[in-house]
Design brief:
Layout: E1 2-4, H1 5-12, H2 16-25, E2 35-37, H3 38-47, E3 73-75, E4 79-84, H4 90-100, E5 116-121, E6 124-129, H5 134-142, E7 150-156, H6 163-174, E8 179-184, H7 193-201, E9 215-218, H8 227-241, E10 244-246, E11 252-261, E12 265-274, E13 277-278, E14 282-285, E15 288-296, E16 302-303, E17 305-306, E18 310-317, E19 326-329, H9 333-348, H10 360-369, E20 374-381, H11 384-395, E21 403-411, H12 416-425, E22 427-432, H13 438-447, E23 451-454, H14 457-469
Parallel strand pairs: 4-6, 4-7, 7-8, 8-9, 20-21, 20-22, 22-23
Antiparallel strand pairs: 1-2, 3-10, 5-6, 11-12, 11-19, 12-18, 13-17, 14-15, 14-19, 15-16, 15-18
Helix pairs in contact: 1-2, 5-12, 10-14, 11-14, 12-13
The structure holds guanosine-5'-diphosphate (GDP).
Residues 84, 86-92, 132, 184-185, 187-188, 220-222 line the site of guanosine-5'-diphosphate.
Length: 476
């Protein structure tokens, strides 16, 4: 079991230089393309509160990933997701960006909705995921498909920070994705930009003018003002991230949506993350092998190849892959079929979920093993007051050995999205006078997310304290 430093960094959303520095602290001198063993990767990951999972279903030994040489790496466009409270203008913003970028005379100016689109900003490009909101973002993360580089947080200037604004902040922070704030609806008479900045400061999103480091833009998605400067800001943020990809290796990416189209058959949109995808390439998408019969861009035009950070519609699937499935070009068609068959077999054996999830029952052992230093908790409760009380009480449980972090707290039932967040972040869920919805319950069982329900705050606090100390009574 080996992985290169650069690959591990990519998976952990960190710069390779950061990992190299950390390894040096641990007494290991490595280069970016050096391979490290699973054990070292695990120790490294735990330093950053990530879990290394030895997953069999999408085991990369099934398909050998081509290595990156430094000279293969070139700048790639950033991939952006728009988040924010309902009605704050996410859809309007995505439409405004799309329409301001349509070159006059271009095929009727029509872009197809394929789940993502690419725009030109000066001589650079930016990719936008077309499904706004943190639900899609978190669902993809829960499936291990973290593709967003930058989040644009839309906050309506008249409304200010609202519950879903806060949720979006939590989701983006949890994913370690930088946030650019777009204060929208500045055309309205009751717009209050300073109030938005004030409110966001409480969440550590502080504008540079106030001594912080968050990039803010003032826009009107309706009047299409400030859009260019927002795009420039995205480029600026992207530059800081030093996003690079190999343009020459076999293509790899993630499925972002799939559909069955009359006449065309199965059509999936894939975002290529590295390599260049070409017509004729053999591939495996999730458990399905295939061969690229045709490629279409976000304008519906037939194309021959798709470089990194390109959303592309693909024809040539043998089954409908789920959103979030890994997409990998293989050396031969035979290999694609073999890998697909192997994965289908593993999936049948239920090995797809070969991921150790944290629960109150295994918490103490995990602390002892040193595999976690942080217990992440999602708190849901019937009313705002009890949620706050429970959050405060739980956070006080932090010890030297284990830090307790509430990654999301809100009033309301335990819903699908809470479970996805917990699954993606390896968190447990504590419900106070609330239950999971049936759908949330189903996902929790599948993803093995621990949901604990309480009617007394004291009981919740005591249970978690006992679990941290290894004194939890068995859950009967
Ligand atoms: P979403 O739920 O966040 O996707 O919000 P929408 O994009 O659907 O916008 C919600 C409403 O706000 C719509 O009626 C939009 O026309 C309106 N809206 C969006 N942006 C602006 C803006 O910049 N100014 C004004 N005045 N209205 C806006």
């Amino acid at each position: 079991e080996v992985i290169t430093v650069s690959e591990l960094a990519r998976k952990m959303n960190l710069k390779a230089s950061e990992l190299i520095g950390k390894l040096m602290e641990m007494g290991m001198m490595v280069t970016i393309n050096q391979q490290i063993d699973a054990e070292t990767a695990e120790i490294l990951a735990s330093e950053y509160n990530c879990n290394v999972k030895i997953v069999s279903l999408y085991d990369e030994t099934l398909i050998e990933t081509e290595k990156d040489n430094d000279e293969d790496l070139r700048e790639r466009p950033p991939i952006v997701t728009v988040m924010g409270h309902v009605d704050h203008g996410k859809t309007k913003l995505l439409d405004a960006i799309r329409s301001t970028n349509v070159v006059a005379g271009e095929f009727g100016g029509i872009t197809q909705h394929i789940g993502a689109y690419k725009v030109k900003v000066r001589d650079h490009e930016v990719v936008f995921l077309d499904t706004p909101g943190h639900e899609a973002f978190t669902l993809m993360r829960a499936r291990g498909a973290q593709i967003t580089d930058i989040v644009i947080l839309v906050v309506a200037a008249n409304d200010g920070v609202m519950p879903q604004t806060i949720e979006a902040i939590h989701h983006a922070k949890e994913a370690k994705v930088p946030i650019i704030v777009a204060v929208n609806k500045v055309d309205l008479a009751d717009a209050n930009i300073d109030r938005v900045k004030q409110q966001l400061s409480e969440y550590d999103l502080i504008p540079e003018a106030w001594g912080g480091s968050t990039l803010f833009c003032e826009i009107s998605a309706l009047k299409k003002t400030g859009i260019d400067s927002l795009l420039e800001t995205v480029l600026l943020q992207a530059e800081l991230l030093e996003l690079k990809a190999n343009y020459t290796c076999r293509a790899e990416g993630k499925v972002i949506e799939s559909k069955v189209d009359h006449g065309r058959g199965i059509v999936s949109t894939v975002i290529v993350q590295r390599g260049t995808l070409r017509v004729g390439d053999a591939f495996v998408a999730g458990v399905y092998p295939g061969k690229v019969r045709a490629l279409f861009n976000d304008k519906g035009e037939k194309i021959d190849e798709a470089p990194p950070a390109t959303p592309v519609e693909i024809l040539g699937f043998t089954g409908i892959p789920d959103a979030g499935s890994p997409f990998q070009v293989t050396e031969t068609e035979r290999q694609a079929r073999q890998v697909g068959a192997k994965r289908q077999e593993l999936e049948k054996q239920g090995e797809a979920q070969n991921v150790k999830k944290i629960t109150l029952d295994n918490l103490y052992d995990s602390i002892q093993e040193g595999s976690i230093q942080e217990l992440k908790v999602v708190v849901k409760g019937d009313v705002h007051g009890s949620v706050e009380a429970l959050q405060t009480a739980l956070e006080k449980l932090s010890t030297k050995e284990i830090h307790l972090v509430v990654i999301h707290a809100a009033a309301g039932a335990i819903v699908e999205n809470d479970v996805n967040l917990a699954a993606a972040s390896n968190a447990i869920i504590v419900g106070f006078h609330v239950r999971p919805t049936p759908k949330a319950q189903m996902i929790a069982e599948r993803e093995k997310v621990d949901i604990r329900k309480y009617n007394v705050i004291y009981d919740a606090v005591e249970d978690i304290r006992s679990a941290m100390e290894g004194m939890l009574a068995p859950d009967l």
